[in-house]
Amino acid sequence: MLTYRQKHEQANREALATVVALAITIAVWVACGFGLAGSDVTLFHTPLWVIGGTIGTWICSIVVVVVLAKKFFVGFDLEDEGAVGSEADHE
Fold first, then answer.
1. Cα angle vertex 64, ends 8, 49, to 5°?
2. Cα separation values, 5 from 51, 79, 87, 88, Å
3. Is the Cα dihedral 38, 40, 43, 46 positive or negative?
4. For the whole model, what pTM was predicted?
5. Which long-range contacts link 7-14 to residues 24+ away (Cβ below 8 Å)?
6. Per residue in 70-89, pLDDT tens?
7. In sequence order, which ranges of 30-84 are alpha helices (DSSP H)?
């Protein structure tokens, strides 16, 4: 059972991990999209930077979400069980 303070600390860790995940996804998008823009390689008559910038970023996003879900996110109720006069008590 997490205390109210521990819940907020966990939420902050999750938020920070999500910001890092966003930065990683943007970096992959820039590298695979703009970084491959000078390449003359094509796949199915599509420039490699288009495939890298879309499918590469999509795959990166899926990997990042799985890592976030398995390593950083914790399931808990946001309600403080010990709170007196909570909304649940009034219903």
1. 140
2. 45, 12, 19, 20
3. positive
4. 0.77
5. 7/76, 7/78, 7/80, 10/74, 10/76, 13/72, 14/68, 14/72, 14/73, 14/74
6. 999 988 777 766 555 545 44
7. 48-51, 57-67
